[in-house]
Amino acid sequence: MKILKRRSWEIPEREATPEHVFFNRRQILAGLAGSGALIGSGLGMRPAFAEENPSAGLYPVPRNEAYKLDREITKEEIASKYNNFYEFGSHKQIWPAAQKLEIRPWTVALEGMIDNPQTLGIDDLLARMPLEERLYRHRCVEAWSMAVPWSGFPLAELVKLAGPQAGAKYLRFETFLDPSVASGQKQSWYPWPYVEGLTLEEATNELAFIATGVYGKPLAKQFGAPIRLVTPWKYGFKSIKSIVKISFTDQRPVSFWEEIQSSEYGFWANVNPEVPHKRWPQSTEQVLGTDERRDTLLYNGYAEQVAGMYKDLTDEPLFM
Ligand code: MTE
């Protein structure tokens, strides 16, 4: 397990407080009522999404204590019933629809400008990767946020396995395409499949993470099972779900939202409270499951790890 030095934004181990100590149902209801998340949410049912998953025995995995929070972990029942996954609908209560997704067999293709192109079965991949848990903040461009215990492995490990060639500059990620399962994909005005991209430097940054689990279990389907990206210094739309392909390329990928509206959603999408989106001021965020609005932090509080990657890119729209 990798142990890193304490970061400036870390606070003492308060955030690992057991759920029942900080969970206040009234607060959650107040927070959700404000966000409209209660409609059809089935609040009160325990999530039981992961039971049949063949990788269930791998979890929980050891926590990497280097990644700490400045806030409480969002209750699982809240985070798992308030999701963006347009393949299953353009609202937040997609979790029942997402259960239709078949996650075995599942393969991830590594292709493009690499020495080791291959298609990996998800369980082979899980067996080869060093699994760990990390507590990360998540900031959606829609100005809500949560804090989640992801399980998975550093994206840098997958990059190492692929063996990028000298000219490779970007990673292009792609989600599955199956409109018979994901009815949102029948909406032909969206440019399916969902695509996202990172620079190779971003992909090998210590924070870039591939999540295969959450809350000590395999990823529930609505979180993007069986494998998703997590880039906590960027707006949440970069965290592409249910990945089937990663291509290494010298061409900057055009992402799903960028293709839909490039004046609002860019390639970089780094969190910055001082750069408002057309529809959402970004200075503060609604913390899911609470009635709290917090000040948003530059790079979502991860400047120390990531700001250096952008210092020479003064002409790029880094924050949209
Ligand atoms: N990935 C796919 N394939 N489809 C999506 O609609 N939504 C994105 C991102 N990844 C999305 C996706 C957006 S806008 C956000 S905020 C996060 O997933 C939401 O992740 P969560 O549901 O785990 O909170």
Automatic annotation (TrEMBL):
What Enzyme Commission number(s) apply to this enzyme?
1.8.5.-
* A single MF term (Gene Ontology): oxidoreductase activity
Highest rank taxon of the organism: Bacteria
Which residues participate in Mo-molybdopterin binding?
Answer: N83, Y86, E87, C140, T175, R228, S239, I240, K241
Gene3D superfamilies recorded: Oxidoreductase, molybdopterin-binding domain
Q: How is it modified after translation?
A: Predicted to be exported by the Tat system. The position of the signal peptide cleavage has not been experimentally proven.
Which residue numbers delimit the Oxidoreductase molybdopterin-binding domain? 101-257
Cofactor or coenzyme needed: Mo-molybdopterin
Write down how the cofactor binds this protein.
Binds 1 Mo-molybdopterin (Mo-MPT) cofactor per subunit.
What reactions does this protein catalyze? L-methionyl-[protein] + a quinone + H2O = L-methionyl-(R)-S-oxide-[protein] + a quinol; L-methionyl-[protein] + a quinone + H2O = L-methionyl-(S)-S-oxide-[protein] + a quinol
Keywords, A to Z, come to: Metal-binding, Molybdenum, Oxidoreductase, Signal
Write one Pfam family the protein is assigned to: Oxidored_molyb
InterPro entries recorded: MsrP, OxRdtase_Mopterin-bd_dom, OxRdtase_Mopterin-bd_sf, TAT_signal
Q: Which family does it belong to?
A: Belongs to the MsrP family.
Q: What function is annotated for this protein?
A: Part of the MsrPQ system that repairs oxidized periplasmic proteins containing methionine sulfoxide residues (Met-O), using respiratory chain electrons. Thus protects these proteins from oxidative-stress damage caused by reactive species of oxygen and chlorine generated by the host defense mechanisms. MsrPQ is essential for the maintenance of envelope integrity under bleach stress, rescuing a wide series of structurally unrelated periplasmic proteins from methionine oxidation.
Q: Which PANTHER family match?
A: PROTEIN-METHIONINE-SULFOXIDE REDUCTASE, PROTEIN-METHIONINE-SULFOXIDE REDUCTASE CATALYTIC SUBUNIT MSRP
Q: How does it assemble?
A: Heterodimer of a catalytic subunit (MsrP) and a heme-binding subunit (MsrQ).
Report the protein name in the record. Protein-methionine-sulfoxide reductase catalytic subunit MsrP
Say which species the protein is native to.
Roseibium salinum
Upper lineage is: Bacteria, Pseudomonadati, Pseudomonadota, Alphaproteobacteria, Hyphomicrobiales
